[in-house]
Every structure is written in structure tokens, then in C-alpha cells.
């Protein structure tokens, strides 16, 4: 029987996997790294960038607060006045939990995985609201180029420290690039503003010992897949059914792999049932096949919004592996 790591490699390289890669099993996520303050359920917090996040009780996630009182970036043409990157924590004391966790991982079995969120696009709209960020790409492109470069340089500084402290084999990087039906910006605009910066970020990781880049975008982004390939993404996690995953595998398999095709919104809700999960996961596995595909809830971490959904999905994937391999 292959290890989780070996089975993942066989799957994404079109080799001889002996079972489906089961969701996040190959990534041992090092969540103790000092990435910044994040809101939990029922909390309102201000993070190190000055962005206020609210996660109302009873909701499945949080989002930045963008009223006049809490908006960080009030004028993109004066972004230097408003946006101040926090200091990247580099002391062993700040990283002690992450270092201990990374050192405990059997790297023959799993990938030591660094977690990054938010990404370049998300950070722009966290600072200034989605509407203003999208408008600024059209009306103030020069200032937006400067701002995205500034965010990129912070990411690269953090990457240097992370690589030094935990020597990750894999990076799991969040940046949602679309809605369920379309990308937020056109491919042409994505190519201008985001592709060059992601090539630098992901290239830096690859040049410094990182074997796998897993990019999360639980959205439609089929029109951006060529850019994902160019920037060095190995696995797109969060691929929704609206992307036509089987067709993407036919077209791009061997260049990039796809993780998801089980829409969280369809299976992860208060009235979820095992039967719904069985239907959706079996459809995904039969349609997408054994190569370049990892069955997974489109959720951006290894859990579900409602108790039992993720674990039940894991059980069902194991059962399908026994039937289909």
C-alpha cells in the first residue's frame, strides 16, 4: 500500500495510485505559524493590517467590515497613507509551535504544509471593499499595481521566514478568484495584475524546496487555469462543479490536478444526509476518474461547516476506493 504522499504523487502524475487521495489527507497543515489574527465564530477582531473582521454567531464564516468607520483604504491614490504592512514575526519564540509541529511530521507519509491566507486579490478587497477594488483596477491601474506589489513583497518576506523555520514541502495558498459562475475579473486583467506576482511568489517557493503548490479558490475559475499552470500551481483546490471538472481534466491533466467537485453548498448544510454525500461523491469520482483528481468538499480547509459532513465524506471516499480500484 502506498503512503499518502506516494499515492498523491502517483495521482497527480498520471501513475498508478492504489486508491483515491482522500481530501486533505496528504497535507499536514501547520496552522500554528504566526500568520495573523483571525476571527472565530461570534467574534469581531481587528487584524495586524487594521482590517476589522466580523463572524456573526450562527453564520458559517466571517468577512471584513467595510463601513466608513472601519474601512482601511479610503482612497486608492493615497494607498501609502492608509496601508501599513505588519512586521513579519521571525523569532523562534513566535514560531515554536509551528516548528514543533513540523518536526513531528513523517515527511515520507505526509507533506509539511504552510498555510497562507488571504492572497493578493483578497487582500485588496479586504482593505478597500470588493466594489472599490474592482473599480480601482479600471480607474487607477497604476496605484493598484503598486499596492499589489506591496502586498506581494510582504508575502515574499513571510515566505522567507516560513521556509527557514519549518521547511515546508507544500504550500496551501488561499485566494478566491470568482463567484460560482464567473471569475471576478477577466483573464486579460488577471494576466496583467496577478499572474506576474504569483509567478514570483510560487516560483520563490519552488526554488526553495517546496514541492507542491496547492491553490484554493472555491469558485468558477476555469478560464484562469492556463495562468494557474503558468504560475506553477500543482493542484487547484476548491474546483466547483460549475467549472466542468471532467472537461478540465481532459484538457489540462498532466499539467495541473483538480481537488474538489463536491460542492460544499450542496452537501454541507443543516439538513445534510449520508445519501446526499454518497450521490455527490460517487458522481464526482466516476466522472472525474483516478488521475489528476482528488475528491474533496470545496471547503477551503480540512473540516466542514456542519458537524459530521467532512468525516462522513472521508468514509465514503474510502468505500469508493475499495470498489473502484
Give a quick precis of the structure:
The chain has 325 residues and is α/β, with parallel strands linked by helices. The protein contains 13 helices and 10 strands. The mean pLDDT is 97.
Report on this model:
It is a single chain. The chain is an alpha/beta fold and 325 residues long. It has a single domain (4-34, 67-73, 89-144, 158-324), classed as TIM Barrel, CATH 3.20.20. Helix content is 43%, strand content 14%. The chain is built from 13 helices and ten strands. The protein has helices at residues 4-12, 79-82, 92-104, 120-128, 130-139, 141-166, 187-193, 195-207, 225-231, 245-252, 264-267, 274-288, 309-324; strands at residues 27-30, 44-46, 52-54, 63-64, 111-116, 170-174, 212-216, 235-239, 257-262, 293-297. The strands form two sheets. Strands 1-5-6-7-8-9-10 form a seven-stranded parallel β-sheet, with helices on both faces. Strands 2-3-4 form a three-stranded antiparallel β-sheet, with no helix packed on it. A hairpin with an 8-residue loop joins strand 3 and strand 4 (63-64). Helix 4 crosses helix 5 (130-139), helix 4 packs across helix 6 (141-166) and helix 6 runs parallel beside helix 8. The protein is globular. 42% of the residues are buried. The model has no long low-confidence stretch (mean pLDDT 97). InterPro entries: Methanogen_methyltrans, UROD/MetE-like_sf, Uroporphyrinogen_deCOase. It comes from Alkalibacter saccharofermentans DSM 14828.
Amino acid at each position: 500500500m502506498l503512503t499518502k504522499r506516494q499515492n498523491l504523487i502517483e495521482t497527480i502524475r498520471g501513475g498508478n495510485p492504489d486508491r483515491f487521495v482522500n481530501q486533505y489527507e496528504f497535507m499536514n497543515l501547520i496552522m500554528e505559524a504566526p500568520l495573523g489574527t483571525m476571527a472565530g465564530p461570534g467574534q469581531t477582531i481587528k487584524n495586524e493590517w487594521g482590517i476589522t473582521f466580523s463572524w456573526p454567531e450562527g453564520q458559517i464564516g466571517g468577512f471584513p467590515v467595510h463601513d466608513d468607520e472601519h474601512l482601511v483604504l479610503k482612497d486608492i491614490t493615497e494607498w501609502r497613507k492608509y496601508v501599513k504592512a505588519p512586521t513579519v514575526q521571525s523569532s523562534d519564540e513566535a514560531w515554536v509551535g509551528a516548528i514543533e509541529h513540523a518536526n513531528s511530521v513523517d515527511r515520507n507519509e505526509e507533506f509539511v504544509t504552510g498555510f497562507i491566507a488571504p492572497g493578493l486579490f483578497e487582500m485588496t478587497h479586504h482593505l478597500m471593499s470588493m466594489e472599490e477594488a474592482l473599480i480601482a483596477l479600471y480607474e487607477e491601474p497604476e496605484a493598484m499595481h503598486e499596492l499589489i506589489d506591496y502586498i506581494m513583497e510582504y508575502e515574499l518576506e513571510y515566505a522567507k521566514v516560513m521556509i527557514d523555520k519549518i521547511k515546508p514541502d507544500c504550500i496551501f495558498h488561499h485566494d478566491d478568484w470568482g463567484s460560482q459562475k464567473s471569475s471576478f475579473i477577466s483573464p486579460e486583467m488577471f494576466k496583467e495584475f496577478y499572474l506576474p506576482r504569483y509567478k514570483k511568489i510560487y516560483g520563490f517557493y519552488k526554488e526553495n524546496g517546496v514541492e507542491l503548490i496547492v491553490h484554493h479558490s472555491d469558485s468558477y475559475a476555469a478560464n484562469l487555469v492556463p495562468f494557474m499552470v503558468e504560475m506553477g500551481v500543482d493542484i487547484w483546490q476548491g474546483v466547483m462543479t460549475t467549472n466542468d471538472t471532467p472537461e478540465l481534466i481532459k484538457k489540462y491533466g498532466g499539467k495541473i490536478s483538480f481537488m474538489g467537485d463536491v460542492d460544499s453548498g450542496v452537501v454541507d448544510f443543516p439538513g445534510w444526509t449520508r445519501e446526499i454525500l454518497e450521490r455527490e461523491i460517487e458522481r464526482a469520482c466516476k466522472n472525474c476518474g483516478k488521475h489528476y483528481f482528488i475528491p474533496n468538499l470545496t471547503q477551503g480547509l480540512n473540516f466542514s461547516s456542519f458537524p459530521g459532513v467532512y468525516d462522513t465524506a472521508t468514509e465514503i471516499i474510502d468505500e469508493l476506493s475499495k470498489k473502484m480500484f
